[in-house]
Amino acid sequence: xxxxxxxxxxxxxxxxxxxxxxxxxxxxxxxxxxxxxxxxxxxxxxxxxxxxxxxxxxxxxxxxxxxxxxxxxxxxxxxxxxxxxxxxxxxxxxxxxxxxxxxxxxxxxxxxxxxxxxxxxxxxxxxxxxxxxxxxxxxxxxxxxxxxxxxxxxxxxxxxxxxxxxxxxxxxxxxxxxxxxxxxxxxxxxxxxxxxxxxxxxxxxxxxxxxxxxxxxxxxxxxxxxxxxxxxxxxxxxxxxxxxxxxxxxxxxxxxxxxxxxxxxxxxxxxxxxxxxxxxxxxxxxxxxxxxxxxxxxxxxxxxxxxxxxxxxxxxxxxxxxxxxxxxxxxxxxxxxxxxxxxxxxxxxxxxxxxxxxxxxxxxxxxxxxxxxxxxxxxxxxxxxx
Length: 386
What we know:
Layout: H1 5-22, H2 26-32, H3 37-47, H4 65-75, H5 82-93, H6 96-101, H7 104-116, E1 121-124, E2 140-144, E3 147-158, E4 165-171, E5 181-187, E6 193-198, E7 209-220, H8 231-267, E8 269-270, E9 273-274, H9 279-307, H10 313-338, H11 348-356, H12 366-379, H13 382-385
Parallel strand pairs: 1-4
Antiparallel strand pairs: 2-3, 3-7, 4-5, 6-7, 8-9
């Protein structure tokens, strides 16, 4: 069992916070197309929720990654996908490399306020021509004395209109693609940064997403994370936590969608009996519940191995692939069983249908996950291939 009494106490505390401070406002935030990130993150920072696995020296709790999984899974209780995704960007996408490889200077000036909820963070990897193909990014930072001067653009940036800083992946030399990139902390109030537009999305409506332009943006070289030229490596490591988080955050939300469908089909009468009495529906929901438990098992195993310091690239990729596929499969099946009501925006399953579609695209598309899994299959010792 991956969770002990301390995990469960932590999850209970977060559940209460969600019930009191988030879910009562979700419908309004969805309608507005944005949630007040600074206000919410400050409340979360005051409770210690934004630095669970971060160093105690910079305000974190210093716990292992099983607590981050516990947080991700509990965030599935939020009645939308956009808010938990934005929180996950803050805790498990924009700050892991900063916490692990950043100098004391950048950690003091950016990690500490992110943990406290005083700063909102975003991660700047994707570009119009480089989404899952991280190696294809074109943004460039050239050295000018003690500064970098950055030019380029970033696309599909979660928290992009509200962020105080970006953990930005850029090219810093013209060498081979895997050693030409660096991660740099870019304050978002720096001259030359333009929010080109707030993107209008099919789902994740309450999460602001932006296209950003960078024109001669001057940033101190001391804002570099770790070593120059190692940004691609750092980002790949950062992706592991992002993908584990994505899998964990889907578990409870998938359970909720199935459970709400069970309750609806138990009450909804058709042809003189509850819909749930139709074996095709009852069996299908049982099958989907089983699939979620399989996802839970692989996710827990991956996190347990990750905490032990093992390479979980293949398991994390499998979990990420599976959560994306299941979010599509579960929401589609459950919406069908809601019938006409499932097609109404007022019904939670329709929001799950819209929000869940991103899971197979963001953080590495399904096809990229399959490619990673294939590479690891090809390198397995012969006795492990079966």
